[in-house]
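Weekly modeling sync, notes
Attendees: S.R. (lead), two postdocs, one rotation student

Agenda item 3: backlog of single-chain predictions. S.R. asked that every request posted to the team notebook include the full sequence so nobody has to chase files. The rotation student volunteered to paste the first one in as an example of the format we agreed on. Action items at the bottom.

Example entry:
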Amino acid sequence: MPIFCEASARPEAHYQFLAGGLSGFLEVVCLHPLDVVRSRMQLQGTRSVRGEVLYRGPLHAMASMYRHEGLTAFWKGIVPPVCVETPKRGAKFLMYELFKPYFYFGAPQPTPLTHAMAGTLAGTLESFVVNPFEVVKITQQANRLERLSTLSVVRSIIKHDGWGFEGLYRGITALMARNAVFHFGFFGFYNAIKDWVPISQDSGSELLRKVTIAGFASCLAGVMSFTLDMAKCRIQGPQPVKGEVKYRWTIATIRTTFREEGFRALFKGLSSMLMKVVPGGAMLLVSYDYIYEFLKTTNY
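Predicted structure, as returned to the notebook:
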């Protein structure tokens, strides 16, 4: 019996990994331009640096980027997330399912807290894999003058700053905090709301139900974790003054930003982030479900 269970579990894990990876790939390719806009707005201060245009909002940022840098600017830094999203999403779904039994807390069935805690742990652990890719991606996105190749950015960071907390792993604590809060909210809210909204027997209505709930949960989770995301972006991106490290630690970065730029600066780029996260969460869930079911039915 144990041999049978082990053998039957392997295809499930295989399908989950593939479905999660492919859904992550689709999300990145479709929504990466909004990620570039969010990073640009989070990195800019209250005054122009080196004559760069100050973005007044997401639409102004998009228009300025297209006018001054061309269409390809919207996909700057896409190689790192494409490389990491496929295995990351697959591994995250596997870890999420693996961790759920440890957070039942005596309940006979998984509760919203079960999903929230399992998602938090999975999201926190994935930070160690994702962080170097985030540093490279943000460095590429921040550059307005030229299109930097991924390998050249990697070599430059390693040469000048190394592999550790000053280099490819700078901002790791901010990323862990951001991921923990976001995944707690996303998985927790999604499963709590899903239990309240009745399942529809009509396939189209059921699809709409899932998309709506996932999008709403993504919105709430994004707002909860956005200030941490702003701090992560400033720590991992180019510093305002070359040769001087202004943003190093999460709480200190939040305090400095609040003191120098005010409360609104803590939420710079929120609208562009929500424009990406809301459809992104819905796309991730729906595509994962469809791909997973397709792989199971076709015995891929």
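Discussion: group reviewed the output briefly. Residues 2-298 form a domain with the Mitochondrial carrier fold fold (CATH 1.50.40.10).
Action items: rotation student to repeat for the remaining queue; S.R. to check formatting next week.
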